[in-house]
Specification:
With 611 residues, this protein is an alpha+beta fold. The protein has 3 domains: 216 residues, Glutamine Phosphoribosylpyrophosphate, subunit 1, domain 1 (4-Layer Sandwich), CATH 3.60.20; 287 residues, HUPs (Rossmann fold, 3-Layer(aba) Sandwich); 94 residues, no CATH class. It is 41% helix and 15% strand. Helix 11 crosses helix 19 and helix 13 runs antiparallel to helix 19. The radius of gyration is 24 Å and the shape is globular. The model has no long low-confidence stretch (mean pLDDT 93).
């Protein structure tokens, strides 16, 4: 796992002095060294986190033997040994033992079709000298970030927006990004919060040639529902886990006490001949702490379980750091909970962590998607009522107050309803911009899908790529130079899961039914039968003290003279919150977190204007 920045400019010389600024800014993404290629019109810079390769062998940029191709790569490609042997048989001579060099070998042989042969968590930039073009690629789910922009005829492509800022890109809020954030919370796949900076959507590639950018999709989620051989599910999951276990460094695991993370840990343990460390967040507050369940499973299997205690004061006190590294907004303390979890993993010396993210997207594990299935497809009122009783916490967050017939999935209706609570705090002129924004729902949807499949696809496009994987995942992991590996987001496994009939994944009120059946001989019954419990932090109001309240007020005070929020209205809202009952404070918590994370981003990147 690494970080990179590429600058291309046909009109002005690119200053070599930028290297020091970039190296400092993205040092957290690669503490094991850096390298760069610099010419008059091009800079390709790379910071290295050495996992499978040594600091010397893994140094980038990578240059092909004929000197016609140059690449910088962030992430891991699988299965390395098999692909390396295949490309050698096709005539490619490797200069290193880095899996990243597969990018050069595959491109040299397959041309632009090389992306079809990439498997893993990755983002990359490749410079083809002969064709005079730059190619950027992001993995199928957006596990690894990639942002880009053009300013004053200069192309910027990087792992994080802060690297673009360090190299001269002007920093300001994006009007469209804030319109999206205050309309449906999640950014669209190609958007960012920063003016002029876009994200390359997951499963897409970018080509820059003749000073023009073109974007092409090379992969998308499908829901064809053919007849699948369900008996091979465990085998497919086992392979996805096995190829992600590093050879040179020990891997740590996050463990929630739920089905997904427990499955990854248990399967991986078959192939690891050393003590295994797993980490579990312990939140304050009844209904939010899963540590006891994680501890039970870990002790039964003799895994080393590490409890990461996170108080509500910790959630508030670390928002600034979480915002800086994630470059995103949040409505729950899970934001800083993930930051502190990875901090603990790093402090124990680990640089690779494996988790169960992606299982809910692959096997329809979310209660709100199950709700849409029962409401629109099964139309079973009795099961709907049972589901609401079974998942009160999740459905209270992900369902609007009143369900109406709508083409929008339940989670999106809930997000739209939540954002309405933010609108009274916005300045009138900015609120006008928000009210003038309309989400193009038809562009993101597929009329051939069922309501539950469409909800699942939209969740993958909006929530998974731009929040779960980028903000909570890579952003918080790479804050501490940690590489995250996600077996459930192996695209071969994922394709298998999404192309299985919905009724085999959602049975009565049991979600991920197919996965639970496959794991019945791997995990104990109490895990296979346990309802999903999302990773959600308790509201900040729980355990609130004078010190915490003072800290919140200090962060809110940064919104004085803000272009977006009306400070008088925000201060009045805060006073109401501070003097409300615990129950009301809990209801107001998402808005408070949005204000605090907005304030933190504003402070970190000096965002004093809206583009």
């Amino acid at each position: 796992m690494c970080g990179f920045l590429v600058l291309a400019d046909n009109k002005r010389d690119i200053e070599r002095s930028l290297v020091e600024k970039i190296t400092h800014t993205l040092s957290h993404r690669g503490p094991d060294g850096h390298g760069y290629l610099h010419s008059k019109n091009l800079l390709m810079w790379h910071n290295l986190l050495a996992i499978e390769s040594t600091p010397i062998d893994g140094k980038q940029p990578l240059i092909s033997t004929d000197n016609k191709l140059v690449a910088v790569v962030n992430g891991e490609l699988y299965p390395y040994a098999i692909l390396r042997k295949k490309m050698q048989s096709l005539g490619y001579t490797f200069k290193t033992h880095s899996d990243s060099e597969l990018v050069l070998a595959l491109y040299q042989h397959y041309g632009m079709h090389f992306v079809e042969h990439l498997r893993g968590e990755f983002s990359l930039v490749l410079w083809d000298k002969t064709q005079h073009k730059i190619i950027a690629v992001r993995d199928r789910f957006g596990i690894k970030p990639l942002v880009y922009g053009q300013q004053n005829d200069r192309l910027y492509i990087g792992s994080e927006a802060k690297a673009l800022f360090a190299s001269g890109f002007n920093a300001s809020w994006s009007l469209s990004g804030l319109q999206q954030s205050f309309s449906h919370q999640y950014l669209l796949p190609d958007s960012s919060l920063f003016e002029g900076i876009k994200q390359l959507p997951p499963g897409h590639l970018l080509v820059f040639k003749n000073n023009k950018i073109s974007i092409k999709q090379y992969w998308q989620v499908t829901f064809n529902s053919p007849q699948q051989d369900e008996s091979c599910l465990l085998e497919r999951l086992t392979e996805a886990v096995k190829i992600r276990i590093p050879h040179r460094k020990p891997v740590a695991f996050t463990l929630s006490g739920g089905l997904d993370s427990s499955a990854i840990l248990k399967i991986a343990s078959q192939f690891i001949n050393r003590p295994i460390d797993c980490y579990s967040v312990s939140f304050e507050g009844y209904g939010y702490d899963e540590y006891s369940q994680a501890k039970q499973f870990a002790e039964e299997n003799r895994f080393n379980i590490h409890q990461v205690k996170v108080s509500n004061y910790d959630l508030i006190n670390n928002i600034d750091e979480a915002a800086y590294y994630s470059e995103g907004l949040a409505i729950n303390g899970q934001y800083t909970g993930k930051y502190l979890l990875n901090k603990a993993v790093h402090q124990d010396g680990h640089s690779v962590v494996m988790s169960g993210e992606g299982a809910d997207e692959a096997f329809m594990g979310y209660a709100h998607i199950h709700y849409d299935y029962l409401q629109h497809e099964k139309q079973d009122i009795a099961l709907l009522e049972q589901l609401q009783q079974q998942y009160p916490l999740q459905l209270n967050l992900m369902l609007p107050d009143q369900q109406k017939q709508s083409p929008f999935p339940s989670f999106l209706l809930a997000k739209i309803a939540f954002c309405q609570e933010i609108h009274p705090l916005l300045k009138m002129d900015f609120l006008t911009h928000v009210n003038n924004y309309t989400m193009n729902f038809n562009e993101l949807s597929d009329n051939h899908l069922s309501p539950s499949q469409n909800a699942n696809q939209l969740w993958i496009k909006l929530a998974l790529g731009n929040y779960i994987l980028k903000t909570l995942g890579d952003g918080m992991e790479m804050a501490f130079s940690i590489e995250g590996r996600l077996p459930f987001l192996d695209h071969y496994l994922f394709d298998f899961a999404t192309n299985t009939d919905t009724q085999k994944k959602l049975y009565k009120t049991t979600s991920k039914y197919l996965l639970r059946k496959a794991l019945k001989d791997t995990l104990p019954d109490y895990l296979c039968q346990r309802p999903k419990h999302p990773f959600i932090a308790p509201p900040l109001a729980l355990g609130l003290n004078v010190k915490s309240k003072k800290l919140i007020h200090e962060r809110i005070s940064r919104l004085k003279n803000d272009d977006v929020f009306d400070y008088k209205k925000v201060l009045n809202w805060f006073n109401i919150w501070a003097n409300s009952s615990i129950q009301n404070q809990k209801k107001m918590d998402p808005v408070l977190m949005m204000l605090l994370s907005f304030s933190a981003l504003k402070e970190n990147f000096n965002l004093n204007s809206v583009g």
